[in-house]
Specification:
Strand content: 5-15%
Number of strands: 9
Distance between the termini: 41 Å
Radius of gyration: 21 Å
Strand order of the largest sheet: 2-3-7-4
Structural class: alpha+beta
Shape: globular
Length: 392
């Protein structure tokens, strides 16, 4: 059923302000102790020094192995996450534009782009307008910055107009459109919860999304139109609100996009571009009221990172605000990504015929939401039950 709406379901209650990527927990854990960047950041945020030290020790420990992380588990983690760095280089996400610009029909090109994205591996893809408020204000991830050098024959160097090369540089993405893509995660692996196998699946899907985004952006640039890929190792935009604006789903209580078929069990990537395209409308799936009624992700979150209370104002938007420090420190306690909120969500259940029918009821009958949460508890359990780990 068509759930299109005139505007996204999040509520704008003030001036929208851009978010600095340097303030994300994943940017902070990458700061090299004693470096000028680390000293400057923690001089401005002394309250984060101890938290960031603990988070960094956890992330480094997973990849290095040792007493707490068996070598074979560290290898499983590195196999999926490490190679993606090569897809984050400036001339890979945002290379030179081809000299011959193709004349395109927006509707036909939109269909071609969506077909190509799905053929490459995206589960779902939609096109939305790029809101400048969702562009990060400054670069916060330093994997190959600032001393990046070209590495022939694979990489030709930094495009002349690439403006967010080094940590702390202002980010500018002036494209009109965003091609938002959702990538499904294997529920059986993600439901192992805090194991090397859930980490493996997250890394596998992140790697696939990075490859598809860079391939799609390369295709657009080869047609003579500007395009930049945004993925795990090189974001220029916040992909969740971009995906909401494109109609892939709604923002849920857990801070993830809630997709009508995948629920929260997905990863996102996108390509921003000036290629003439036809935008999709946002959708209203009933998620806002459902999340108000449900709170299952919040009550089962072991770290208390997901709020059980009301929405708050965050940079001009009224939303549920998660606590990323609590979340990642719980990962540190487990030694792997938690993933409970990915699978406990009633929207994340297997796409069987009964579940699809129940989802239709959730779309259309707001009064049934409380009953549907009760039914989900009855069938799937009120609390998280981890799946058995695979034998391999």
């Amino acid at each position: 059923m068509n759930r299109s709406t005139d505007k996204p379901t999040y509520e704008i209650v003030g001036d929208l302000t851009r978010f600095d990527e340097r303030d994300t927990v994943f940017s902070r854990e990458r700061l090299v102790p004693g470096s000028p960047e680390e000293r400057a950041y923690h001089a401005a945020h002394p309250e984060l020094v101890e938290i960031d030290r603990r988070i960094a020790a956890f992330v480094e420990g997973i990849g290095e192995g040792g007493d707490d992380v068996p070598t074979q588990d560290a290898a499983l983690y590195n196999a999926t996450f490490d190679p993606v760095a090569g897809l984050a280089l400036p001339d890979v996400v945002d290379g030179e534009v081809g000299p011959n610009r193709a004349d395109v029909d927006p509707a036909a090109m939109t269909m071609r782009i969506k077909t190509m994205a799905r053929r490459l591996g995206a589960y779902d893809v939609r096109v939305g307008p790029l809101n400048p408020a969702w562009v990060y204000s400054h670069r916060g991830t330093p994997p190959f910055f600032p001393d990046y050098r070209p590495n022939p024959p694979h990489f030709g160097g930094r495009p002349e107009d690439y403006r967010d090369r080094a940590y702390g540089d202002p980010i500018e993405v002036q494209h009109r459109f965003a091609i938002a893509m959702a990538f499904a995660q294997n529920a059986d692996l993600v439901r192992t919860g805090g194991t090397p196998f859930s980490d493996f699946e997250l890394g596998r899907v992140y790697a696939l999304s990075a490859l598809v985004a860079t391939q799609l952006a390369s295709y657009v640039r080869a047609m003579g139109w500007s395009a930049r890929a945004h993925h795990l190792r090189n974001y220029g935009v916040m992909v969740v609100p971009v995906a909401v604006d494109a109609g892939l789903g709604e923002l849920g209580r857990c801070g993830y996009l809630i997709h009508p078929r995948l629920g929260a069990n997905l990863r996102l990537a996108c390509v921003t571009t000036d290629l003439p395209l036809v935008v999709d409308p946002p959708v209203d799936l009933g998620v806002q009221h459902f999340c108000e009624t449900c709170s299952k992700c919040a009550t089962t979150c072991p770290s208390g990172a997901i709020p059980t209370g009301e929405k708050v104002m965050v940079r001009g938007v009224r939303k549920w605000q998660i606590d990323p420090e609590k979340c990642l420190l719980y990962w540190a306690h487990l030694g792997s990504a938690c993933t409970i909120c990915h699978t406990i969500c009633p929207w994340s259940k297997p796409p069987t015929l009964p579940h699809r029918l129940i989802a239709e009821v959730a779309f259309n009958v707001t009064a049934a939401h409380r009953f549907l949460v009760w039914a989900d508890d009855l069938v799937y359990g009120k609390h998280f039950r981890p799946a058995p780990q695979p034998g391999w």
